[in-house]
Specification:
Elements: H1 14-27, H2 31-34, H3 38-45, H4 51-57, H5 67-80, E1 84-88, H6 94-106, E2 110-115, H7 118-130, E3 137-141, H8 144-147, E4 156-161, H9 168-175, E5 179-188, H10 194-201, E6 207-212, E7 216-221
Parallel strand pairs: 1-2, 1-4, 2-3, 4-5
Antiparallel strand pairs: 5-7, 6-7
Helix pairs in contact: 5-6
Pfam family, one: Methyltransf_24
GO molecular function, one term: methyltransferase activity
Protein name: Methyltransferase
Length: about 220
């Protein structure tokens, strides 16, 4: 990207696309989720056994990162000159577009993202293509506990955890050996995964970690 060229994130087609997608996300509803009792909703979100049930009920909800977290993802990837990014939880592709836009401005790379809800994958692919970023993104369909076990880059620069919250420790374990020193892990809604927070905040675990913007945990892999 030349200095006089606007960042991909701030330019068409990406900027107007994201404005539209955030508006659609804000307007989305799910009677299946809204009709749940609060204690049942809390249980499903934090359950290692019933996460598939919850995300099936929530298939019409976008569950996106916030605009601020999307900007953070872009900024981190740009500052690190990231080339290899892994995302757990594609949903409708809002965070995917932010990350892929950073790869474009970094000169290229690969974003591997994974999602098990087929209807969301269809929409996410459409959005990535509309953004003009499809050449940078590989969307894997299925449970991340399977899709992220093979064919990963030798080194990973940046990870976004934004899928089933109880699986955050498991996904970290799958990727950990490939995280380069200085790799960043952004965990959205990390307060729903106390085991993950205990892991990355534990002294001697190999990370520096702190909360960002309330419900996002930002961690760096030490050398």
């Amino acid at each position: 990207m030349t200095p006089d060229k606007a960042p991909t994130l701030m330019s068409a087609p990406v900027a107007p696309l994201l404005d539209r997608l955030f508006a659609e996300a804000d307007a989305a509803t799910s009677p299946a989720v809204s009709n749940l009792a609060p204690e049942e909703l809390q249980r499903l979100v934090g359950s290692r056994d019933d996460y598939v049930q919850f995300y099936g009920l929530a298939k019409d909800l976008w569950l996106p990162v916030s605009r601020e977290t999307g900007m953070l993802l872009y900024m981190l990837a740009r500052a690190m000159r990231a080339q290899h990014i892994v995302e757990f939880g594609t949903s409708f592709g809002i965070s995917t577009v932010h990350l892929a836009a950073a790869l474009r401005d970094n000169g290229g790379g690969k974003l591997i993202t994974t999602e098990f809800e087929p209807s969301k994958i269809v929409r996410a692919r459409q959005h990535v293509e509309e953004a003009g970023l499809a050449d940078l993104v590989e969307i894997r369909e299925g449970d991340a506990l399977s899709t992220l076990t093979a064919n990963l880059p030798e080194t990973i620069d940046l990870v976004l955890l934004d899928g089933a919250k109880p699986l955050y420790p498991d996904i970290l374990a799958l990727l950990e050996s490939r995280l380069r020193p200085g790799a960043m892990i952004v965990a959205d809604n990390a307060d729903y995964s106390p085991d993950y927070l205990a892991r990355v905040r534990s002294p001697g675990a190999g990370y520096l970690s702190l909360p960002f913007d309330g419900d996002v945990e930002l961690s760096v892999k030490l050398g």
